[in-house]
C-alpha cells in the first residue's frame, strides 16, 4: 500500500468511534432499576464522529444537533444521493494564493475535523474532488471565490483552505443563485498564520445549504471567521474551531437577517485545547415577517490542558415584527481551574424605548429612528469584517432589507 493510500484511509475512513462513552468515564454508572446501560455524552468533544453517512442513524429531528431544524424539508441532503462532482466557480487573483481541485487522497483532508451529523457525513462520503485554496506569503492579500451555478439538484462539496505558516490573507466565499447543498469546509492554519474567512450566503429564495466548517489553528496563529446569512430558504452554517496550538486566537462573527419563512441556523463550537488561547464569539441578527426563524447554539469547551484561556461568547437578536422566533442557546464547559476568564451572554428582544425617545427628541421621525437602531445594531458586526468593498455591499444589503421592512 502506498503512503498516499494509507493517508487516504486514515483521513477519510477512520474506524467508527463509540457513539456513547463507557460507563467508567466520569465515574457514571447506569441506574440500578433500569439496566439499560445508557450513559449520555458528557462533554462536547465526545460526540460521535464519522466520515461515513451509513454510520449515522436516520435523521428524525429529535437529535440534539437537529432538534431546532426543519429536517423534513431537506431529507434529500441527509439521506439521499448527492452529486459530488466538481462545479463552476470564479475567483479573483492574488499573489501567493492558489486554487486547485485535489483528489480525496490529499493529505490535508480530515485534518481539521470530522463530521458529527449525517448531512455532513453524507457530503463527505459523496464528494469526488475537493477545492483547495492554499495561501502563502506574509504580505496581506484578499481573494473572493464565487459560486452561482450549483443548480437545484442535491449536491455535495468539500473545500480546503490552508494558510501556511506566517501567511496573511482574507478569503471570501460568496454564494448566490440556486442550491441544494451539503458541504464541508476545512480550514487549516499553520503556526503564526493570520487568516480571515468570510462566507456570504445570498442564495435565491428557495435555496437550501447545510454547511459544516472545521478549523484547526496552530501556535500563535489567528483566525477570524465570519458568517453572513441573508438569502436562502434554509441556511445552516456550523463552524467548529479547535485552538490546538499554544497562543492561538480566534474571533467568530455572525450577521443574519431573517425574512418571512426563512430558517437561518448556526451552531458554533470553540474547542480550547492548548494553553494561553483566546476566543471571542459575537453573532447578531434581526428577524421580521411571519415564520422568520433563527437558531444560534454556542458551545465553548475549555479542556484540561487549556490553562490561561480567555473566552467569551454572545448572541443578540432584534425582533422587528410579530410571528418570528429566535432560539439562542449558549453553553460553556470548563475542565480546568486555571483560566483568565470565560463567559457568555444571550439576549432577544424588541427596540429599546429609551433609544427611540432619544432619537425622536432630536427631530427624527419614529419610523426612521427604528431603522437607525437596526442599522447600528447590525453595523457592529459589519464594521469588523475588514474588507471595505464587502462592508459597503453588506450595508447596502441591510438598507435594502429595511426598505421593505415594516419596523414595529
UniProtKB/TrEMBL annotation:
SUPFAM superfamilies: Stabilizer of iron transporter SufD (SSF101960). Residues 156-377 form the SUF system FeS cluster assembly SufBD core domain. The gene is sufD. Transmembrane segments: none annotated. Residues 1-14 have a biased composition (Polar residues). Signal peptide: none annotated. It comes from the Bacteria. Belongs to the iron-sulfur cluster assembly SufBD family. This is Fe-S cluster assembly protein SufD. InterPro entries: Fe-S_cluster_assembly_SufBD (IPR055346), SUF_FeS_clus_asmbl_SufBD_core (IPR000825), SUF_FeS_clus_asmbl_SufBD_sf (IPR037284), SUF_FeS_clus_asmbl_SufD (IPR011542). One of its GO terms (biological process) is iron-sulfur cluster assembly. Residues 1-35 are annotated as: Disordered. Pfam families: SUFBD_core.
Amino acid at each position: 500500500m502506498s503512503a498516499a493510500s494509507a493517508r487516504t484511509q486514515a483521513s477519510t475512513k477512520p474506524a467508527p468511534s463509540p457513539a456513547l462513552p463507557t460507563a467508567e468515564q466520569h465515574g457514571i454508572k447506569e441506574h440500578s432499576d433500569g439496566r439499560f446501560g445508557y450513559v449520555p455524552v458528557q462533554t462536547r468533544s465526545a460526540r460521535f464522529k464519522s466520515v461515513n453517512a451509513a454510520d449515522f442513524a436516520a435523521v428524525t429531528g429529535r437529535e440534539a444537533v437537529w432538534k431546532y431544524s426543519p429536517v423534513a424539508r431537506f431529507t434529500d441532503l441527509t439521506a439521499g444521493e448527492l452529486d459530488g462532482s466538481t462545479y463552476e466557480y470564479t475567483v479573483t487573483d492574488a499573489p501567493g494564493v492558489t486554487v486547485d481541485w485535489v483528489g480525496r487522497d490529499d493529505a490535508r483532508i480530515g485534518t481539521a475535523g470530522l463530521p458529527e451529523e449525517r448531512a455532513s457525513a453524507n457530503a463527505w462520503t459523496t464528494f469526488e474532488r475537493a477545492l483547495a485554496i492554499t495561501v502563502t506569503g506574509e504580505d496581506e492579500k484578499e481573494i473572493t471565490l464565487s459560486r452561482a451555478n450549483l443548480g437545484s439538484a442535491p449536491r455535495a462539496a468539500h473545500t480546503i483552505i490552508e494558510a501556511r505558516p506566517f501567511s496573511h490573507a482574507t478569503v471570501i466565499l460568496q454564494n448566490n443563485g440556486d442550491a441544494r447543498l451539503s458541504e464541508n469546509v476545512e480550514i487549516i492554519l499553520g503556526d503564526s498564520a493570520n487568516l480571515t474567512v468570510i462566507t456570504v450566503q445570498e442564495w435565491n429564495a428557495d435555496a437550501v445549504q447545510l454547511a459544516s466548517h472545521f478549523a484547526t489553528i496552530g501556535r500563535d496563529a489567528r483566525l477570524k471567521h465570519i458568517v453572513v446569512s441573508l438569502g436562502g430558504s434554509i441556511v445552516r452554517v456550523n463552524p467548529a474551531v479547535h485552538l490546538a496550538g499554544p497562543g492561538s486566537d480566534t474571533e467568530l462573527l455572525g450577521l443574519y437577517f431573517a425574512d418571512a419563512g426563512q430558517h437561518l441556523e448556526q451552531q458554533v463550537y470553540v474547542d480550547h485545547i492548548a494553553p494561553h488561547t483566546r476566543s471571542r464569539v459575537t453573532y447578531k441578527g434581526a428577524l421580521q415577517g411571519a415564520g422568520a426563524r433563527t437558531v444560534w447554539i454556542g458551545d465553548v469547551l475549555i479542556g484540561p490542558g487549556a490553562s490561561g484561556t480567555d473566552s467569551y461568547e454572545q448572541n443578540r437578536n432584534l425582533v422587528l415584527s410579530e410571528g418570528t422566533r429566535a432560539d439562542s442557546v449558549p453553553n460553556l464547559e470548563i475542565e480546568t481551574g486555571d483560566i483568565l476568564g470565560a463567559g457568555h451572554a444571550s439576549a432577544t428582544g424588541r427596540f429599546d424605548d429609551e433609544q427611540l425617545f432619544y432619537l425622536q427628541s432630536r427631530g427624527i421621525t419614529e419610523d426612521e429612528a427604528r431603522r437607525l437602531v437596526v442599522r447600528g445594531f447590525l453595523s457592529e458586526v459589519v464594521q469588523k469584517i475588514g474588507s471595505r468593498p464587502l462592508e459597503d455591499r453588506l450595508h447596502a444589503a441591510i438598507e435594502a432589507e429595511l426598505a421593505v421592512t415594516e419596523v414595529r
